[in-house]
User: Fold these one by one.
Assistant:
Number 1:
Amino acid sequence: MHQAQIINLPKILDERGNLSFFQNEHHLPFTIQRVYWIYDVPGGEVRGGHAYREMQEFIIALSGSFDVILFDGKEEKKFTLNRSYYGLYVPKMLWRSMENFSTNALAFVASDSFYDEQDYIRDKDIFINEIHGAK
Ligand code: TYD
């Protein structure tokens, strides 16, 4: 799972309020095609139980906090996102879940692709088969 990583973003400190940003190629290992966000998550809910065959993402907790659990077919790793000045780069072919959302958590996601349901693997057994090369 060497590729999944926290990416620190610029933080412009200012007495009037802080500012962070990211832009294509400078901070992410891909070009952004789409952004979406997840909000109003009821306590205890889990989002995103799936993998992408090709799509890559960058996930930020713009407000509040939540955990992103990544599984590469062998080991599972938990990343807690709770600041708006860093995010998690998620390469393709990792099973990912998002859980433990705080009240008012806002998950902001930048993707390298347009939405494509065909790229999703929504069955964990199929994911495990594909990752081990047994198609
Ligand atoms: P999904 O990716 O399954 O959500 P999560 O991974 O957070 O559980 O998407 C939920 C629904 O929203 C699904 O019906 C597809 C739709 N959707 C879009 O139409 N466009 C998008 O960019 C995304 C991310 C989802």
Note: The chain is about 5% helix and 40% strand.
Number 2:
Amino acid sequence: MDKIVVAGGRPLNGEIQTSGAKNAALPILVATLLAPGEHRITNLPNLVDISSTLSLLGRIGCPSLFQAESTRVDTTRIAFSEAPYDVVRKMRASVLVLGPLLARHGACKVSLPGGCAIGVRPIDQHLKGLEALGARFELSGGYINGRADGLRGAEINLDMPTVTGTENILMAATLAEGTSVIHNAAREPEIVDLANFLISLGARIEGAGTSTLTIHGVPRLSPASRPYRVLPDRIEAGTYLCAAAIAGGNVTVTRCEPSTLTAVIDKLREAGCEITVDDDRVTCARTGELRPFHVDTQPHPGFPTDMQAQLMAVACIANGTSTFRENIFENRYMHAAELLRMGARIDVQGRVATVRGVPSLTGASVMASDLRASAALVLSGLAAQGVTQVLRIYHLDRGYEDMTARLRGVGASIARLADDADEQAVQASLRETR
Ligand code: EPZ
């Protein structure tokens, strides 16, 4: 396993180019199962979750060739309709194969994902929607066995706007007979990107990006005539804007989609950052002190839960008391305990966290617990006095491509080492970046 070491106290200056959105790429790759043939997808990020999804497609009988600029996936044949426990437990998004396998193949066997660090994360809404379309499920031995002898359009009311739940049902409905309507659908930009991809395969979808999705089923879908380009990753972009906010300096995130970042941009402005927006780039400049703020995580277009940890890192050194309310997941404050080790002053009561800003953090060894918490800890290291070592950064590799190189590219003193590298190796690696 590796760790990231950061020598804090240096402002950042320069440009960081973002990759394609992980949370759009995952459903889009799985959606290729709906349309037999060879698909070409561009701007895929080079992440562990992407390679896990491609290897899952391979186990289903669909070979692929990953190239960041143009990945090919061949879904001509489905030989095996199972997503096994060892895959799903590492990547919950594997449950997205339920909808496409039922729609195309009429059967699937998918391991229940189990919980994860940030919460129980049930999939009852996925199953409710797919059952409304005519699927039948049995649960045995931790696996969901699904069958469907043809899907039929239905009206589905989701209890909450679940992102992957909306995606699973949306994908299945494209091949159902008749029209389906999903009420209380998720509105995330990644849903819009998936809908656009499905439309490129011949699907008929209205209302993407609103809370009511109408899908007119078609008898078949086929690969698009042109490669599909995945939208830029708004969470990666927001994370690097937070890096400038916490370290100070001036960072421009390029090849991003500013319209998907409005809630994060508003919050960083509230915190005292100067944000400028151009067509495909956003600049965050921070020279003065940070002001306290309040974060209430909500489904899109509200403030994204995936940016809560990163903004908490910013709040730790704001001049005043900030408050957070995490409304989406029941256990998404694991980073708070690690930030306390760096001298932050955070009080967590259930879903509410109160952060009293301190003049500066101090470097320490801290443990990553989930993808976004890992990012928050690296950001905190950028502002801390001394050296911070972030352990278990395999979490980070799931959602951030080359974070060390991208931060070093704007002046951070940061390096990636084996987690048993000694003090001498740590200092030597950081000297190289100075
Ligand atoms: C997606 O997870 C994202 N993952 C998450 O990103 C993101 O945090 C989350 O949406 C919220 O925006 C992918 O897109 C691969 P939900 P998802 O279903 O779909 C409850 C990251 O860091 N719920 O919208 O699993 C659930 O417990 C990851 O990139 C049910 O109760 O999230 C949660 O409280 C982390 N029953 C809430 O809804 C269900 O059937 C929202 O979950 C489904 C969800």
Note: The longest strand covers residues 2-7.
